[in-house]
Amino acid sequence: MGKTRHTGPVSLPKTPDPNLWVSYVPFGIGKVKPRHIRDTMKVIWDNRDNLPYAYRILTQGVCDGCALGVAGLKDQTLTGPHLCTTRLNVLRLNTMPAMRPEILHQDIDELRKLSSEELRKLGRIPYPLLREPGDQKFRRISWDEALDRIAEKIKKLDPRQFAFYLTSRGSSNETYYVAAKVARFLGTNHIDNASRICHSPSKTALKRSLGIGASSCNYKDWIGTDVLVFWGSVAANNQPVSTKYMYAAKRKGTKIIVINPYHEPSMDAYWVPSIPDSALFGTRIADDFYQVNIGGDIAFMNGVMKHWFEMEERNPGSAINHSFVQAHTNGYQALKKHISKYGWEELERSSGLTREQMRKFAQLLAGAKSAVFVWSMGLTQHRFGTDNISQVANLALLRGFLGREHCGVMPIRGHSGVQGSGEMGADPFSLPGGGFDEPTLQRLEKVWNFEIPRWQGDIVGVTLENALLPDDHEQKIRLYYLSGGNFLETMPDPDFVRRSLTQLDVRVHQDIIFNSSTLLDAREAVIVLPAMTRYEQPGGCTSTSTERMVYFSPEIEGPRIEEARPEWQIYLDLAARVKPGAKECLGLENAQQIREEIAQAAPDYDGIQHLRKQGDVFQWGGAWLCEGGFCPTPDGRGNLLPIDLPEHRETEGQFRITTRRGKQFNSMIYSDTDPFNNADRYDVLIHEEDAAKLFIEEGDAIVLYNRHGRFHGRARFAPIHPGNLGVHWPEGNILIPKGIYEEHAGIPEYNTTCILEKAETFYGRKDADYAEKRVADLETEIS
């Protein structure tokens, strides 16, 4: 842990820099770009029935959108106000009224006709609901009836037969902590969360490479670093306020590099609405793009290191920071030997980039005195995601870009609640303040005063698979308690997910709104529990940002939903009904008591107990983890790890495919049109050269298919690396295989391969076995 403290926000330059402007046409008129003023006016209109409350949420609460850590309208990076359309879009979830009874209790088949967007707009869940087999409508029940029914079912089950899941939907550290404690109190380790599905390879890789499980640096370190690299991360789309940080970095002379198969227009140019000259004329963000193949990042990074080792042979000290490597790392010679076995032809084929392109990036980093590496799901959501991140750590260690100002590694989080989820123990592989190791178990048992089960809990994908086990199987999941989330729209293979969810005996949805999965059947009961938002919770709550800032968000005065309760309180009430004789073991009667216990259970969070009012914040770990190059590993050194290339088996006509986000927050879609490239939700991004080989013109109806599913869309020419395709998520999930997980962290695979054909060709074949034969020939496995 570092000793240096964050020094607070800095100011933007007061004069504009026309050299960064995109166009002299004001407001980007005529260009494809977000319309921030229009979107803001729409949000005001949508919240017109509750504008005073909406204003208080924005000015007093901590943002429940992305994980940049905007509290009120300020953060710890830049002075001045910060507001983005992502936060504004999420705002209506907090201000809308309850669903009207005539809508809530209508025929379930009528509700099932609605899209998730339409369901979301119906309003908040007002009170507990129950639907049993044969029921065509939800019926209202009391809290006592709902919780007693859940508790009675849990009492009948082996702890391996029920599971908990928590989404990132504005969830607080308090909720994650109590859920983690209650799950173990009830005897199960089957607990998982949305953060792990996105970033578990980041935590796993950083632990083994550097001994840390979070960002080593701050957003403030972007501003003034020599090189800022975004690796498989489209921060301008997913964390829009970050464009203000990028603008500040550009004004300090920082070079911004984007590594992504698709030349993302939002990272090329952006109109930052809170900076006058950028709002008028736009800002050129990226200085260079490196368009790797999907899954080609390991080869690219091996190529960069190969260039460095060759540079060292010609001119020692020209690429490697030898003093840092010798003082603070292990494995240098083994890594060097490993890299030497790869030839340039193999690295070029796997990465999709030329030797010269790799040299250019290698020389840029070699000449830099500082750099920050930022990444997201473009690196993590592969079956080799952990290896991807360890490669990033290798680059940082070889150059000494760690533990000092303007340097570091940052897995940027997409949602405000997720950084704290694993740190609070809502995870099958971790407990508050540590992993699932014996010392942590024994330490927690002293705090919790009950025995924690030692068996390994399952990740969400395995839990869904186990819901389909035979009834007499001891590991069949019979009850699934879901706090938010919609697996139908977030997990691979939606048909499989639907079968799994409907084969559960009891499914509990603790949420603020309906989604499509809420409406599925269950064998015994679907129980819906209304939850409070973070702004409604008595005693306030806390959340942790990407840069490890722990913010206090106060309870905000405003209207309340009839029977909604704090999520942590619901968990505690359930646990007391399952084991009433041991209720005193849980304690935690209010939010402040939860924070006081968190400070004991998770030593890094010592300080959270002092957060009591609006504006209170502290950063655990100091400004930089691994400060001075000293890593919290057993020997205090970082580990350079040899990483093999993933094997890609390719056949003629095969495309690599990945998913991307449009105008949406997680799976909540706010527009059918992507504001950055004007694509609709079923447009397939394809390089014009690839399309020409298949005699496909822009706008043609096409079919993507593999052994997992079939996707119907239209061709949209785009600057994506040849041989690669992009589809929107979650629509493209139908092509993603189920049951394939990253070896070290258990994250589902969200990339695959497919065959692409014109729709008229696909459907015009008289031979019915044609498609089946092509699928059989298609290799979708990457070893």
Automatic annotation (TrEMBL):
Protein name in the entry: Formate dehydrogenase
Stretches assigned to the Molybdopterin oxidoreductase domain: 124-576
Lineage: Bacteria, Bacillati, Bacillota, Bacilli, Bacillales
Entry keyword set: Iron, Iron-sulfur, Metal-binding
Organism: Kroppenstedtia guangzhouensis
Domain (Molybdopterin dinucleotide-binding) ranges: 657-753
